[in-house]
Amino acid sequence: MTVAKYVIGNWKMNGDYALVMQMIAALRSMGPLDNVTTVICPPFTLLHSFAELLGMGHIHLGAQDCGTEISGARTGDISAAMLIEQNCRYAIVGHSERRRYQMESNEVVAAKAANAQAAGLMPVICVGENLAEREEEQAEIIVEEQVTAVLKKLKNAAVIFAYEPVWAIGTGQVASHSDIAGMHDVIRARAAKHDFKDVAVLYGGSVKPENAGGILALGGVDGVLLGGASIDPDAFIAIAKTAHHLP
Ligand code: PGA
Fold first, then answer.
1. Structural domains in the chain plus CATH codes
2. Residue of 6, 7, 8, 10 to mutate, ligand 1, most atoms within 8 A of C-beta
3. Is the CB of residue 170 below 6 angstroms from any atom belonging to ligand 1?
């Protein structure tokens, strides 16, 4: 049986209205792909244009973050309910860039994931070790802590994790197949321990059209989270097609 794969694009702080138009034209010509769930997470400011122009059931929208609070005095934050109103179905939380530059702790990430879930968004929870942690052989412990902190705060429902080793993000240095498979097993085992059954685990970090096929074909990989490749319409569509053509 072929299992559906996720192809999720995180535009980060990139893109403009012109890119939205280009991407939509490319997605229209791609058409729906069986067995692939395609999600685009543009900056908040482009969500509305995307939703207005998109009008296609086969592409979903996601946000790159979600507030820790439901509403109120949190200048600059965006709540889960606001994202739902902008037609988002997914929310990335805990991306390593936010953990690093906004000093987000596991507890903050857990609060965001819980808010997203409570509002009806599917949280896409990013976890992953940095280079020093890997070199000190702490990678599994770090990832287990990140996963556990979030699962403790979530209701037992469907959830997506993205394993994104920090040293692989934007570096062109993709993790080896055995590292990916090994860490995906660690994440799944941790989820099983907390009795979560509906868990998808994606890989992210320098995924490109050239390496996506091998990664997506790995048994424990339910999809990919793309950064750089997601703002190049040709690359994004090539990866979605690769997911579609997997045996
Ligand atoms: P990259 O980013 O594909 O540019 O390495 C991945 C990510 O940050 O999700």
1. 5-244 (3.20.20.70)
2. 10
3. yes
